[in-house]
Design the sequence.
């Protein structure tokens, strides 16, 4: 029997007993539980809840019948607003324990719909005769097996209803053992499904795929190799995938294998906060690092600033440039390909002096970038993070070495019911 102190980065309860830390799946802070260990090391154990002897007031009944088996969600047993609070605490703890930085002002958490929010997802596909044939869904917890899912509460209902028909579709294909993944990409006017195929379907397969696309009003793509190889099978002439940021009159086109924010409802709110914190002025030179398709670049340029977007993918640079032209912002935005994980001071200086920066890196953070920042500018940095640990590391450098203050920070609950912590922070020169 142990008492749970907190949650770790994977949403597991953390307790201590016998000089060891115990990570307990399914336990919540403040609870008293018994547990069963399935992994033991000299200094820690990993376990699952056996009995909850004293339950948290925030414990709820999970909505999804697959919760506990499917690895897609880890926190459905915690009240959604409780999840928000836990993530805010995680952000503050990491900033202090890793970066030795305190937040001057805690921003109100950004959150929205808790269900049906995932507009991007990668579903695993596996032919499992012992379970009746093809399975389509997320992986099981701690396993490479595919969960036997017939619905999903975090993807839109119309897509959830396709899980069983997709099983039947793949089961009927001659290449059913060569389809390991189906990627979901929902745009404003198109629902796209990308089938990763290790062997190209034959003519009979293609006919089945076209029938499925027409019957269920989706666009089907095939991806024979890397993400760039994806192409639309049917309908070929469907509207381009895009989403609008209405507040700035911006439309962003993308391919279904491109990175876009998973949570369609929260992305405009995130952009609004980023622009407000950045406070771009007409004529200012602003850098958007790890700029992707221009999700922040184009709204910032709408404010009259001149934006330079830097991105490691040549393909994304090309699409971001096309998006700038599409929105009539080609004269205010330029995009360049550069490897920001290997950034050197001279490299960054070659793009000119920036008054302010937006940084939106992958999980590895922006270590090389922050190490390059010297001198009087940029005066303000808005950092959008998908990993509080690397944000904390980079914040430690910005505040304790480079002369910035962490003016404000807060979480963005992009992935409800998971332990994933998205956040936004603003740094200003002292």
Sequence:
């Amino acid at each position: 029997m142990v008492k749970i102190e907190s949650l770790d980065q994977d949403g597991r309860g953390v307790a201590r007993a016998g000089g060891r830390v115990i990570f307990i799946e399914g336990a919540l802070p403040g609870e008293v539980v018994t547990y069963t260990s399935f992994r033991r090391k000299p200094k820690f154990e990993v376990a699952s809840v056996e009995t909850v002897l004293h339950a948290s007031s925030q414990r709820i009944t999970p909505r999804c019948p697959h919760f506990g088996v499917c690895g897609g969600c880890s926190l459905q047993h915690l009240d959604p607003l409780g999840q928000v609070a836990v993530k805010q605490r995680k952000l503050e703890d990491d900033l202090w324990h890793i970066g030795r930085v305190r937040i001057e002002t805690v921003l109100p958490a950004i959150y929205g719909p808790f269900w049906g929010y995932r507009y991007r997802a990668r579903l695993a596909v596996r032919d499992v005769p012992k379970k009746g044939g093809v399975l389509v869904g997320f992986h099981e917890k701690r396993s490479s097996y595919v969960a036997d899912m017939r619905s999903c509460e975090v993807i839109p209902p119309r897509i959830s209803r396709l899980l069983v028909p997709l099983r039947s579709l793949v089961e009927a294909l001659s290449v059913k053992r060569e389809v390991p993944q189906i990627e979901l990409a929902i745009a404003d006017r198109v629902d796209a499904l990308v089938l990763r195929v290790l062997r190209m379907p034959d003519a009979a397969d293609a006919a089945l795929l076209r029938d499925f696309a027409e019957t269920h009003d989706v666009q089907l793509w095939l991806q024979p190799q890397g993400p760039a190889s994806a192409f639309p099978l049917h309908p070929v002439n469907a509207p381009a995938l895009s989403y609008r940021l209405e507040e700035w009159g911006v439309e962003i086109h993308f391919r279904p294998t491109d990175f876009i924010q998973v949570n369609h409802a929260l992305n405009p709110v995130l952009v609004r906060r980023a622009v407000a914190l950045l406070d771009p002025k007409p004529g200012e030179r602003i850098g958007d690092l790890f700029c992707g398709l221009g999700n922040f670049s184009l709204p910032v340029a709408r404010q009259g600033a001149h934006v330079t977007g830097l991105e490691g993918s040549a393909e994304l640079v090309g699409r971001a440039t096309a998006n700038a032209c599409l929105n009539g912002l080609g004269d205010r935005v330029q995009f360049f390909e550069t490897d920001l994980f290997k950034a050197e001071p001279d490299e960054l200086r070659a793009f000119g002096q920036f008054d302010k920066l937006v940084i939106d890196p992958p999980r590895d953070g922006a270590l090389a970038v922050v190490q390059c920042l010297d001198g009087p500018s940029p005066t303000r940095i808005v950092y959008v993070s998908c990993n509080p640990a690397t944000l904390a590391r980079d914040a430690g450098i910005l505040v304790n070495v480079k002369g910035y203050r962490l003016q404000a920070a807060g979480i963005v609950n992009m992935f409800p019911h998971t332990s994933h912590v998205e956040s936004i922070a603003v740094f200003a020169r002292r």
